[in-house]
Structure formats: C-alpha cells, structure tokens
Design a protein that fits this description.
Order of helices and strands: HHEEEEHHHHHHHHHHHHHHHHHHH
Shape: globular
Strand order of the largest sheet: 2-1-4-3
Main location: membrane
Organism: Pseudoduganella ginsengisoli
Strand content: under 5%
Number of strands: 4
Transmembrane segments: 159-183, 276-296, 316-333, 345-363, 369-391, 403-424, 430-452, 489-514, 526-547, 554-574, 580-604, 651-672
Structural class: mainly alpha
CATH topology of the domain at 471-680: Growth Hormone, Chain: A
Helix content: over 70%
Domain Major facilitator superfamily (MFS) profile: 274-673
Keywords: Cell membrane, Membrane, Transmembrane, Transmembrane helix
C-alpha cells in the first residue's frame, strides 16, 4: 500500500507505523503478562475467600443456635432450623448445604441446594456448638467444588474479557494520541515543505496550536506572500513614476510568477487525519451509553412501578431511550449544522451525562424512564455531530473511508462496553455503572472542547452533511405519497428495515438480559454473550459488503440475513438454555451483517425516480426514521410477550416473526420488481 501513497507521505508513514506497532506490541505484552498472572492467582485466591465466607456464615449461625440453647432448649428440639437454613442458602448461592450434627456425628438438621451423596465433592467447614464450655454438636457449612470450579472459570473468563476490551480501548486511545501528536503534525510539516519546495507559497489554514515547526513554515509562507505583495506594489508605483525602469523589471516579475505561486487557498490540511479525532469521540459516547446494556431491563424490572407487570417495567425505559433517539435524530442534524460540531457534540454529551447521572442517583422508576428518554435525545445529538464532522472533512474520494472509521468506533464500543458494564455491575452494583457512564460522557465533552475546532470548513459545512441520513422535515407530503406507492420501497422498509431494528432492540437489547437472568446467568456472563453480536458484525460486515458489490447480491443478502436471524432464534422451542441464546445472538449478528449495508444500496436503487426530484437525503431520512420507530417498538412488544407467555416463548415468537417477514419480503419485492420491469419495458416500447 505504501507505493500508492504520495511521496511526501511516504517520508513519515513507515516511522509512524513502526512506532505504532512497537507501542501496541508493548501494550499487548504487558496486558497479556498481567492477565496470565491474574489467571494463575484466581484459584488460590478464590478458595480461601469462599472458605472465609463459609466460616463467617457458620459463626453467625452457630451464635444464633447457641443463643437458643442458652434458653434451655435441647439441641434435638430446636424449631424452624431447616426452614431458616433454606432461606440462608437461597440468599447465598455459593453455599451447598448447612447441617447440625450431635457429638456422635449424627445429622439432626440439614438443608441443601445440591446432591450431597458424594462428600468428596464438597469443601466442609465444621464449627463447634459450645454451651457452658462443652461441645454439644457441630454446624457444618459446605461449598460445592463444582461451584468453586464454575466461579474460577467465570473469573478467568472475566480476565480474558478485560484483556480483550482493554487492548481494544488502548488501541483506540493510542491511535488518537499518535494521530493528534505525531502523525497529523508530521503530515502538516511534510505537506507544507513539499509545497514550498515546489514553489507553492499559497496560504493554507493555519496548523493547530502546539505545532511550532508547522507554525514556523506557515509563517515563512506568510512572509513570502507579504514580500510578493510588496514587490507588486513597488512595481505598480514604478509604472507611474519611472516607466522605463518598470519596463526593465517586467521580465523579472513574469519569471517570478512562472516559477512560484502566491495567494491563498481553502484547501484542507489534514482531512483524513481529522476524522480520526472524531473516532475516539464516537467510541466514548457509545461506550458510555452501552455500559448498561447487559443489565438495564433487569434493573428496571427491580424498581417498583404500580400497575405495570415485570415485562412492561423492564421494556419501557429501553423504549423511552429509542423513542428519544428516533424523535430527536431528524432535527439533530440540521441543528448541528447551525450550531457547529463542537458545540452540538458538547451539548449532546452533557445531556447524556445528565440522563445517566439521574439514572444512577435517583432509584425511581418514573425518573428512570424520563432519564432514558433524555439520554436518547443526547445520544442522537452526539451521533449527528460526529457524522456531520465526518462529512465536513471528507469528500467523494475519501468519504467511504471516513464513515468506515466512524462506524468502526461504534462497533468496537459494541464489543467492549456491555462486557465491561456487566463485570462492573456484578462487583460494584448497577447504579455505580450508570455514574461511571456519566463520567465517561463528561470526559467526552471535555475532550471535544479541546480537539474539535469551533468552526468547520465552510465549503463542506454548506453541504447537507450527515444530515442526509436524517432530514425528515425536508420530506414533503408529496414525496411520502410517492414512496408509499413504490412497492419495493414499502417492502424494503416494512418487511426488512423495520423488522431488523425491531429484532435488534427487542431481542439483543431487551430479551437477552431478561432471559439469561431468569436462567441464572450473572451480569458478567450476559455481557460476554452480547459481545458476540459486535464481534460478528465487526468481522463479517466488510466481507458481506464486498460480496454484495461483487455479485450484485443486495436483495439476496437482505433476504438471507432475515431468514438466518429467524432460524437462529427458533431452536429455543426445544428448551431455553444459554447455548440457544448464544446461537440466537450469533445468528442476529451474522444476519444483520449481511443485510444492513445492502439495505441502503437497495433504498438508493429502488427510489431513483423519487431521488431525481427530491434528492437522496429526505428518502434515506424517512427510511432511517421508520427503522428507528421499529427499534422503539421492539422492547415494548417483546415485553408484552414476556409478560403474557414468558421469555422463551417470546424468543420463539421473535424467530417466527423474523422468518415470516423475510419470506414476505422476498415474495413482495420479487413481485414488485417484475411489475416495475414490465412497466419499464412497456414504456420503452
């Protein structure tokens, strides 16, 4: 690839790449070594911890039993001991059994959560029951070795997840730092030196603060332009005062003009590198928002809300967030164009921070719903600010690459954030995770204030930036009527676009945490499960996009993606299990990797006539709005299904819906394509 770079860029590309690889390799080495060390310590640290837990529980229980014995009640006649032990075991899943034996070892009372026919399977802690200095019996507290092995395995999974996510986060931060402090200034310096060496002294946009060498070169070009202007003024004065001398100097001026270029230009300086600056901002706001994905429905269902069943309590905050996104997005783009990218991003980040902070500080259901709607509005503003920034600083030659950087940051956050949030929720609680998200959003606002410019390139800012993805207000009633008569657009919107987002929000965001929680999985495990969607999307989306372009298979991939999603959700019919949920997540990730990018290409293809009159922006905006409305409906409808039929049956219903909507799309889209082709042939004849 280096052979295709401009000669000036090749001067610094290799050293930068070597520096980046060296630092990244060092990070990988250190992180891997720390993870392996933590891995080796997991068993020897966890076993004493469980032993201490069993001993502490035993001391507390034995104290209560001895207190009862002190009232003169014989050990063999204590009332309610098995029932009390059962309650203790219910609250402490790490304990396998509690038993009271007499001095001879005969069991008097016992309660268990496991099969205790194989005593070698258990770690037994025995505490004496002493009354007036005499041992009258023993209390036995047992921990199942299989539970210990499961805990060690889960802890090691968490170590692996932390390793992966920390490396991904380090990669994003390293890329940002190297670009901001090394690549961008070097590119600026090399580019200016190449222009000056070629005799091009035109003034370009000034370098960012803190770049003294680039600033010095900028000053040299500025001085050259001032000197050239002074020469022109002197030549003009000589034409009036000494025409003969002016005539003798004219060849020198012509020679000067032929060899050098002076003046000014609005040519951007670091277009491709500026997009990297917004990548880390995109990652941060997505990371802050997605931290709660693995547990939000479970947390919402735990809050009291009179008149609402658990399914509706779990789904309404997610629906409120998605509605906030859907209703704000069409206006956020135009608002960002007017206010500027930096100001709109900061405003969105502070709004998200406020919503997450309220969620963490006010454990009230109504406050949660309102805060989630506010967070959705802030999310929409931040998203459109970042997308608009990409459009501002790219053109038709590099916009695809710029959008890939932007979307890549979102996918990396999709992988990292739910897993990290689940691990933290298990250890510090739900509310602290929301507060951590608020701090990340605040940090994103502070970073945007530093790295984003207050104004953007005016030529590009005049274009309808990212706001081509959301300008629904520009979609006139006449355009909506025409699109409603376009059967292929209707099929694509209502049988593919809306169902895809419906399944994404209804299954992945809402149902997966609810179902896995009912199956006894921890928040850490739920976070690991949801990572699979981001991993499959990040790995396979470019592959399917290439296949769609190469074989012109857009409609086939859209249909196949929906069918695959449906087939992946249906095996829950044979019984709810974590493996079947994982299969459904993988099918959703692969299926949507196949269909999402192909959908937009089909939208452009089936609406060519409407786009000639109204432009592509309003059409894509309408399609995106329908998608987001489908996403908002997903948790609500799925919550109703959970409340009425249960979580496994809801997953089965979603699978049937995905399969039926995809088959309907195939039939309607193919039939409409044939009719349109026949009409076109008739019109041509």
């Amino acid at each position: 690839m280096s052979s295709h770079r401009p000669p000036a860029e090749r001067l610094y590309a290799r050293p930068v790449r070597q520096l980046f690889v060296f630092v990244l390799a060092l990070l990988v080495l250190v992180q891997t070594a720390l993870s392996l060390y933590a891995w080796s310590l997991s068993e020897q640290r966890l076993l004493p911890e469980l032993g201490r837990k069993a001993h502490t529980t035993g001391v507390e229980l034995s104290t209560q039993i001895v207190r009862a014995l002190g009232y003169g009640i014989p050990l063999q006649r204590l009332e309610g001991v098995p029932e009390y032990f059962a309650e203790v075991l219910k609250e402490n899943r790490d304990l396998a059994y509690l038993r009271v034996t007499d001095r001879a070892g005969a069991v008097l009372y016992g309660s268990t959560t496991a099969d205790t026919t194989a005593p070698e399977r258990f770690l037994d802690t025995a505490l004496p029951l002493q009354l007036q200095g005499k041992t009258v019996g023993h209390l036995h507290v047992g921990v199942d070795h299989r539970y210990l092995a499961a805990r060690i395995r889960e802890l090691r999974y968490d170590i692996g997840i932390v390793l992966i996510t920390s490396l991904l986060i380090a990669f994003e931060i390293l890329w940002f730092i190297v670009t901001l402090n090394f690549t961008a200034p070097m590119r600026h310096i090399v580019t200016m030196m190449a222009h000056i060496a070629a005799g091009d002294f035109r003034q370009r946009p000034p370098p960012p603060p803190g770049a003294p060498i680039a600033g010095h070169l900028h000053g040299l070009a500025e001085n050259a332009n001032r000197s050239y202007d002074a020469v022109l003024r002197d030549a003009e004065a000589q034409r009036r005062l000494a025409p003969l001398a002016a005539a003798q100097a004219e060849p020198v001026l012509r020679r000067l003009k032929s060899l050098y270029t002076f003046g000014s230009t609005s040519e951007g300086d670091l277009v491709a590198h500026r997009v990297v600056l917004v990548r880390v901002l995109s990652f941060l706001f997505m990371f802050a928002e997605m931290l709660s994905r693995s547990f939000l429905p479970v947390y919402a269902a735990s809050l009291p809300a009179p008149g609402l069943d658990s399914g509706m309590r779990a789904s309404l905050p997610i629906t409120a967030f998605l509605l906030g996104v859907a209703l704000t997005m069409p206006f956020a783009g135009a608002w960002s164009d007017r206010l500027g990218r930096r100001s709109s991003y900061i405003a969105g980040a502070l709004t998200v921070m406020a919503g997450l902070a309220v969620t963490g500080l006010v454990p009230d259901y109504l406050a949660l719903v309102v805060a989630r709607a506010v967070t959705g509005a802030g999310y929409a503003v931040m998203f459109m600010a970042c997308q608009g920034y990409v459009f501002d600083h790219t053109d038709s030659s590099n916009r695809g690459k710029g959008m890939a950087l932007f979307v890549g940051a979102i996918m990396v956050a999709e992988i990292c954030s739910p897993a990290v949030g689940g691990i933290l929720a298990d250890r510090v609680g739900y509310r602290m995770v929301f507060l951590l998200g608020a701090m990340v959003a605040l940090g994103a606002a502070a970073l945007a204030a530093v790295v984003l410019r207050a104004t953007q390139n005016p030529e590009r800012a005049a274009a309808p930036a990212g706001n081509s993805a959301a300008p629904l207000p520009g979609a006139s009633f006449a355009l909506v009527s025409r699109l409603a008569r376009n059967r292929r657009f209707v099929a694509l919107s209502f049988l593919s676009g809306m169902p895809a987002k419906f399944l994404y929000s209804g299954f992945l965001i809402f149902l997966v945490p609810v179902l896995l929680s009912t199956l006894g999985h921890s928040k850490s495990e739920i976070g690991r499960y949801t990572m699979l969607y981001g991993l499959s999307s990040l790995a396979l989306a470019p592959v399917f996009a290439h296949l769609a372009d190469r074989y012109n298979a857009y409609a086939r991939l859209v249909a196949a993606g929906g069918v695959l999603t449906g087939l992946g959700l249906l095996p829950v019919y044979f019984g709810a299990s974590g493996d079947f949920v994982m299969l459904g997540i993988a099918a959703l990730g692969v299926g949507q990797s196949m269909s999402i990018s192909a959908q937009l290409v089909l939208v452009a293809r089936v609406t060519r006539e409407e786009a000639r009159d109204a432009g592509t922006g309003p059409i894509v905006g309408l399609f995106r709005l329908l998608e987001r409305l489908g996403a908002a409906a997903g948790p609500l409808v799925t919550g109703m299904l959970v409340a009425r039929y249960g979580a496994p049956q809801a997953m089965l219903a979603l699978g049937a819906f995905a399969l039926l909507s995809s088959l309907a799309f195939v039939l309607v889209f193919m039939a409409a394509t044939r009719v349109d082709a026949a009409n076109a042939e008739g019109a041509a004849a």
